[in-house]
Amino acid sequence: MTSPPFFHTPIKVCGLTREEDVDACAQAGVNAIGFVFYEKSPRFISPERAHGLANRLPAFITPVLLFVNASEAGIRQACDAVPSAWLQFHGDESPAFCDKMAKLTGRRYIRALRMPLETREDWDKNTPQIPYELVEYSQQYQTAHAILLDAFVPGYGGGGKTFNWSLIPQNVNAHLVLSGGLTPANVGDAIHTLKTRGRSFSVDVSSGVEASKGIKDAQLIHQFVQAVRQAEHTSR
Predict the structure, then answer these.
(1) What is the model's pTM?
(2) Structural domains in the chain (count)
(3) pLDDT over 80 at 67, yes or no
(4) Residue whose C-alpha is closest to residue 109's, from 117, 118, 101
(5) pLDDT for 162-208, tens place per residue?
(6) Which domain holds residue 92?
(7) Is 72's pLDDT higher than 50?
């Protein structure tokens, strides 16, 4: 897969909890926003809260609902609250479960993969609990609209950590969403790295644009978007 001469990198900001943060994303030109339905997360919100926040969105900004090993009933309830949203599975959901829920709710879905923080050699030697190769993983979840790459840390979520971007192979037949520890300061380097590998992709940020957990910083959101757009042009 090769990138076109210029590719407009889609940007998602995840873990929104407040009206002013939704408004800041819309004003900055973000393409998608994420709502977290994992009760152990400091960014967790209820379906009712997500409904109210999603209703503030202007046209052409996509809401995404993030789940971690949620029940079918919980997923259906969230989908009923935010009818236009995509799904994002960030736990131990099987390909069959993801496919089933996508069909039952009529939604596209994103599947998260937690990448090792070390080199590939260290990954193979020291972290056997991560059994996935990205190419194989994308084949297993071939009905996913995208594979989101986050950093592997204990629990679920990337914990604001980056992984070694050189671990991303070039022969993955899937659209990739780069996540894990991205900030206005490093997202340009991430874009340059993946562009030189001939890939088109999206980026996802959460803690990198926060004043505190679950509280976004409007200035950081704008800086992140500006850094992405500047890196696009310098990578052409």
Answers:
(1) 0.90
(2) 1
(3) yes
(4) 101
(5) 888 877 887 888 999 999 999 999 999 999 888 876 677 999 999 99
(6) 11-234
(7) yes
Quick check: is 74 in a domain? yes
Closest listed residue to residue 88, CA positions, set 106, 74, 60, 107: 107
21, 25, 150, 204: which is the annotated catalytic residue?
Answer: 150
CA distance 80 to 37: 14
Q: Helices 47-54 and 72-81, interaxial angle, to 10°? A: 30
Active site residue 14: yes
150 is catalytic: yes
Residue 85 within any structural domain of the chain? yes
- When mean pLDDT is compared across 4-8, 151-155, 230-234, the lowest value belongs to 4-8
Q: What CATH number is associated with residue 178?
A: 3.20.20.70
Candidate list 14, 25, 79, 98, residue with the active-site label: 14
pLDDT category, 3, cuts 50, 70, 90?
very low
State both tokens at 55: 């209703």
Cβ–Cβ under 8 Å, residues 147 and 174: yes
Residues in the chain: 236
Higher-pLDDT residue of 135 and 68 is 68
**Nearest in space to 147 (alpha carbons), one of 159, 135, 160:** 135
